[in-house]
């Protein structure tokens, strides 16, 4: 198992995703002799996980069953332990496309936070790219570095514990793309410019507040960034449902009876007993995340 | 010196696939010498771009030739609004169509005199009786609008998934089933497309989706394009201008053989095509391939006007001998083409045969349900799939069928909402127009089929859905 390469069988030391049901997943580090408690009972790693195929069903001690899935950055995003507010797949997707990430890209990122975006970046730039990620919170930096190792992507990433606004990214003229998710991105724009390649590159800044966007855009323009554009993207979930809608009783319809037309006219009047129509449709969730953050993209031209 | 070497990989060369850009308008072209290209109703020659660096902005000068635009910065700051006079509001501005003293003909004359976009805008401002009474904001907006209209520049950029997805969505959304670029972005992550994996693609989006996937795989792993009809459509893939070795990772398999492959009647021959006993099956494949080949061949003839004209003239002038020779060559070509096709089919069938693909992406004008239900069988357990459709109902059907047959988890029907913002001091707000919809996605993860289920599924009709629903919540 690795976050950048699939394998078929679960091995000792793998990090797997246990699928408990809709919207409920938990990450499990597989260790010989260990056990994991779920709401369906205990899973014994040695006998029930190691050597099993990814995607297989595991029956827990209380008789309930779960599925064991190979980790992907997308599953990790919904399973990971939150140490900060995180970026979700919808925003991550558009970030990856607009920053033109692909195998071999060199990317700078700050802050690392809980590493949700970092894993998606690593997946996309492997096997030949590199991620330089800067996190000013020491414990978070240490924790995420440990996770990268467990997920077998540590060869693709350098974690730096420093303040990007003061100390920059620690690299010069190497990056194809820079991503900023920090409280005052405008203070890091000049460092982003330094980190980006001489021939140019893309920048993205994620900010929840429009005032942050405002200030960042001004600084981007001052620093001669081009194609500055701000977007917001929201995920809308459609829950598939079978619904039954009753039909009211309109009473006898004299017009349809007096009509001299063909006999087929009669059946449309529904019999009172099963006067309802059943169909498959979708309903929106009662509540949804209505705002994550604004994404500001800009291009650094060749200098 | 190192820098110069570095530069060389960013130089535009003859034969490169590039994208012309002006503002939000893109057009994918190939750099060919002495070839006229139409961009935004203008004839241009790209000859002068050769040897220049990518992302260079060019001025279109007389004769449709390109000239690298110098002092980019000066142009930007040299705002024509030296006039600092501005009004406070618009109470005195009347829309009577008389504020601009220059007529259309006047402007055309100015253009013919070779005035640059900037200069024309300056003329327009000087001849506008209301410009000085507009507010500063309105003046900015006016200049921006006119600049856009009279600007005569083009930037040449490298083709990328971002650029091409935006280009197709802006220019020819019908060709890509109205797949919006952010929806494509979602598909690439939801299917966990990455280097080294084996991805199945079924698309009728001009090759854009396929190209996007190939870009994300960076030439590592394999992509199998399942195609309908006579041959795979890859116009969009060409636009990406991938290095040659990328194409070694691309395989193709006609969707019309999927049933046979699933039934097991195709893959034995494909696995060892040299074995004598399989000749009959081979021939069958050959026949089928031949049938399919007719169509692309016709297209090829349509596409090559030179060839066509040459053929007609020779047919008129030359005698049967020539014709026969040609026929023979053609037959031989056809034979080798057929052999090539069969070899490709065998290779693709071998890749599919293990039923261990790592990802599945569907985005087509066909009903997705039967496609999904067949192709999902080629995936390993615990692998993601994503289906795009313009219509939600088709995905509801997919969802329902998958729930019935089992073998998937994490099913989700979604779409995304995308809004652009104007960000300016004191004037920040959402852009007035936004896309009404970018299409729908059904995504999920495969799991090992529960073998106890098929037996029980017949009597499960009633209670099963309820049980599933309980799982969901």
UniProtKB/TrEMBL annotation, chain A:
<keyword id="KW-0808">Transferase</keyword>
<feature type="binding site">
    <location>
        <position position="135"/>
    </location>
    <ligand>
        <name>S-adenosyl-L-methionine</name>
    </ligand>
</feature>
<keyword id="KW-0949">S-adenosyl-L-methionine</keyword>
<protein>
    <recommendedName>
        <fullName>tRNA (adenine(58)-N(1))-methyltransferase catalytic subunit TRMT61A</fullName>
        <ecNumber>2.1.1.220</ecNumber>
    </recommendedName>
</protein>
<dbReference type="InterPro" id="IPR014816">
    <property type="entry name" value="tRNA_MeTrfase_Gcd14"/>
</dbReference>
<feature type="binding site">
    <location>
        <position position="163"/>
    </location>
    <ligand>
        <name>S-adenosyl-L-methionine</name>
    </ligand>
</feature>
<keyword id="KW-0819">tRNA processing</keyword>
<keyword id="KW-0539">Nucleus</keyword>
<comment type="function">
    <text>Catalytic subunit of tRNA (adenine-N(1)-)-methyltransferase, which catalyzes the formation of N(1)-methyladenine at position 58 (m1A58) in initiator methionyl-tRNA. Catalytic subunit of mRNA N(1)-methyltransferase complex, which mediates methylation of adenosine residues at the N(1) position of a small subset of mRNAs: N(1) methylation takes place in tRNA T-loop-like structures of mRNAs and is only present at low stoichiometries.</text>
</comment>
<dbReference type="GO" id="GO:0030488">
    <property type="term" value="P:tRNA methylation"/>
</dbReference>
<feature type="compositionally biased region" description="Polar residues">
    <location>
        <begin position="271"/>
        <end position="284"/>
    </location>
</feature>
<feature type="binding site">
    <location>
        <begin position="114"/>
        <end position="117"/>
    </location>
    <ligand>
        <name>S-adenosyl-L-methionine</name>
    </ligand>
</feature>
<feature type="binding site">
    <location>
        <position position="181"/>
    </location>
    <ligand>
        <name>S-adenosyl-L-methionine</name>
    </ligand>
</feature>
<dbReference type="InterPro" id="IPR029063">
    <property type="entry name" value="SAM-dependent_MTases_sf"/>
</dbReference>
<comment type="similarity">
    <text>Belongs to the class I-like SAM-binding methyltransferase superfamily. TRM61 family.</text>
</comment>
<feature type="region of interest" description="Disordered">
    <location>
        <begin position="246"/>
        <end position="303"/>
    </location>
</feature>
<dbReference type="GO" id="GO:0160107">
    <property type="term" value="F:tRNA (adenine(58)-N1)-methyltransferase activity"/>
</dbReference>
<keyword id="KW-0007">Acetylation</keyword>
<dbReference type="Pfam" id="PF08704">
    <property type="entry name" value="GCD14"/>
</dbReference>
<dbReference type="GO" id="GO:0031515">
    <property type="term" value="C:tRNA (m1A) methyltransferase complex"/>
</dbReference>
<keyword id="KW-0489">Methyltransferase</keyword>
<feature type="domain" description="tRNA (adenine(58)-N(1))-methyltransferase catalytic subunit TRM61 C-terminal">
    <location>
        <begin position="64"/>
        <end position="300"/>
    </location>
</feature>
From TrEMBL, chain B:
<keyword id="KW-0819">tRNA processing</keyword>
<comment type="subunit">
    <text>Heterotetramer.</text>
</comment>
<feature type="compositionally biased region" description="Basic and acidic residues">
    <location>
        <begin position="320"/>
        <end position="337"/>
    </location>
</feature>
<feature type="region of interest" description="Disordered">
    <location>
        <begin position="452"/>
        <end position="473"/>
    </location>
</feature>
<keyword id="KW-0808">Transferase</keyword>
<dbReference type="GO" id="GO:0030488">
    <property type="term" value="P:tRNA methylation"/>
</dbReference>
<comment type="similarity">
    <text>Belongs to the TRM6/GCD10 family.</text>
</comment>
<feature type="region of interest" description="Disordered">
    <location>
        <begin position="293"/>
        <end position="337"/>
    </location>
</feature>
<feature type="compositionally biased region" description="Acidic residues">
    <location>
        <begin position="304"/>
        <end position="319"/>
    </location>
</feature>
<protein>
    <recommendedName>
        <fullName>tRNA (adenine(58)-N(1))-methyltransferase non-catalytic subunit TRM6</fullName>
    </recommendedName>
</protein>
<keyword id="KW-0489">Methyltransferase</keyword>
<comment type="function">
    <text>Substrate-binding subunit of tRNA (adenine-N1-)-methyltransferase, which catalyzes the formation of N1-methyladenine at position 58 (m1A58) in initiator methionyl-tRNA.</text>
</comment>
<dbReference type="GO" id="GO:0031515">
    <property type="term" value="C:tRNA (m1A) methyltransferase complex"/>
</dbReference>
<keyword id="KW-0539">Nucleus</keyword>
<dbReference type="GO" id="GO:0005634">
    <property type="term" value="C:nucleus"/>
</dbReference>
<dbReference type="InterPro" id="IPR017423">
    <property type="entry name" value="TRM6"/>
</dbReference>
<feature type="region of interest" description="Disordered">
    <location>
        <begin position="64"/>
        <end position="98"/>
    </location>
</feature>
<dbReference type="Pfam" id="PF04189">
    <property type="entry name" value="Gcd10p"/>
</dbReference>
<dbReference type="GO" id="GO:0008168">
    <property type="term" value="F:methyltransferase activity"/>
</dbReference>
């Amino acid at each position: 198992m690795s976050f950048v390469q699939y394998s078929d069988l679960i091995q000792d030391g793998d990090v797997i995703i246990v699928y408990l049901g809709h919207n409920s997943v938990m990450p499990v580090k597989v260790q010989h002799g260990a056990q994991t408690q779920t709401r369906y009972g205990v899973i014994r790693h040695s006998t029930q996980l190691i050597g099993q195929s990814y995607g297989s069903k595991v029956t827990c001690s209380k008789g309930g069953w779960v599925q064991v899935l190979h980790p992907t950055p997308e599953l990790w995003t919904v399973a990971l332990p939150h140490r900060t507010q995180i970026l979700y797949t919808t925003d991550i997707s558009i970030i990856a496309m607009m920053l033109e990430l692909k195998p071999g890209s060199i990317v700078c990122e700050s802050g690392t936070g809980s590493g949700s975006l970092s894993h998606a970046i690593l997946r996309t730039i492997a096997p030949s790219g590199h991620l330089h990620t800067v996190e000013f919170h020491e414990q978070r930096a240490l924790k995420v570095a440990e996770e990268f190792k467990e997920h077998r992507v540590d060869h693709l990433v350098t974690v730096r514990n420093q303040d990007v606004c003061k100390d920059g990214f620690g690299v010069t003229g190497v990056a194809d793309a820079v991503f900023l998710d920090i409280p005052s991105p405008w203070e890091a724009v000049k460092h982003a410019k330094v980190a980006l390649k001489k021939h140019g590159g893309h920048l993205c800044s994620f900010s929840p507040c429009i005032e942050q966007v405002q200030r960042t855009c001004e600084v981007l323009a001052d620093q001669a960034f081009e194609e500055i554009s701000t977007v917001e993207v929201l995920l809308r979930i459609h829950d598939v449902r079978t619904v039954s809608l009753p039909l009211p009783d309109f009473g006898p319809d004299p017009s349809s009876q007096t009509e001299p037309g063909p006999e087929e006219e009669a059946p449309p009047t529904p019999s009172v007993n099963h006067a309802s129509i059943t169909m498959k449709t979708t309903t929106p969730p009662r509540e949804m995340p209505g705002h994550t953050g604004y994404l500001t993209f800009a291009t650094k031209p060749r200098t | 010196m190192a820098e110069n070497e570095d530069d060389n990989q960013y130089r535009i060369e003859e034969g490169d696939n590039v994208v012309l850009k002006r503002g939000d308008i893109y057009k994918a072209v190939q750099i060919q010498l002495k070839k006229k290209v139409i961009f935004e109703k203008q004839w241009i020659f790209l000859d002068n771009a050769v040897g220049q660096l990518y992302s260079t902005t060019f001025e279109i000068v007389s004769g449709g030739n390109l000239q690298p635009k110098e002092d980019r910065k000066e142009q930007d700051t040299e705002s024509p609004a030296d006039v600092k006079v501005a009004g406070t509001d618009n109470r005195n501005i009347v829309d009577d169509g008389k504020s601009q003293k220059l007529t259309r003909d006047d402007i055309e004359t100015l253009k013919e005199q070779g005035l640059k976009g900037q200069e024309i805008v300056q003329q327009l401002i000087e001849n506008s009786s209301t410009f000085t009474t507009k507010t500063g904001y309105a003046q900015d907006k006016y200049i921006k609008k006119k600049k856009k209209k009279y600007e005569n520049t083009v930037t040449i950029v490298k083709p990328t998934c971002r650029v091409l997805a935006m280009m197709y969505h802006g220019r020819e959304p019908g060709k890509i089933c109205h797949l919006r670029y952010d929806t494509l972005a979602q598909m690439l992550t939801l299917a966990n497309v990455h280097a080294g994996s084996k991805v199945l693609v079924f698309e009728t989006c001009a090759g854009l989706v396929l190209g996007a996937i190939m870009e994300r795989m960076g030439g590592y792993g394999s992509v199998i394009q399942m195609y309908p009809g006579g041959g795979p459509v890859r116009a969009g893939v060409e636009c990406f201008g991938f290095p040659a070795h990328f194409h070694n990772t691309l395989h193709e398999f006609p969707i019309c053989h999927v049933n046979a492959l699933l039934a097991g009647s195709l893959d034995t021959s494909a696995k060892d095509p040299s074995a004598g006993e399989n000749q009959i099956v081979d021939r069958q494949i050959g026949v089928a391939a031949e049938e399919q080949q007719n169509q692309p061949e016709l297209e090829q003839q349509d596409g090559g006007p030179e060839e066509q004209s040459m053929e007609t003239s020779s047919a008129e002038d030359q005698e049967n001998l020539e014709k026969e020779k040609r026929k023979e060559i053609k037959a031989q070509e056809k034979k080798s083409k057929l052999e090539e096709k069969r070899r490709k089919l065998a290779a693709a069938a071998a890749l599919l045969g293990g039923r261990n693909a790592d990802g599945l992406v569907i985005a087509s004008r066909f009903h997705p349900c039967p496609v999904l239900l067949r192709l999902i069988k080629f995936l390993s357990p615990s692998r993601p799939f994503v289906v795009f459709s313009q219509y939600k109902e088709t995905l509801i059907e997919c969802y329902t069928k998958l729930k019935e047959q089992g073998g998937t988890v994490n099913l989700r029907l979604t779409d995304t909402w995308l809004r652009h913002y104007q960000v300016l001091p004191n004037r920040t707000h959402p852009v007035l127009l936004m896309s009404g919809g970018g299409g729908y996605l059904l995504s999920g993860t495969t799991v090992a089929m529960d073998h106890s289920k098929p037996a029980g599924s017949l009597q499960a009709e009633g209670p099963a859905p309820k049980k599933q629903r309980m799982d969901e919540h």
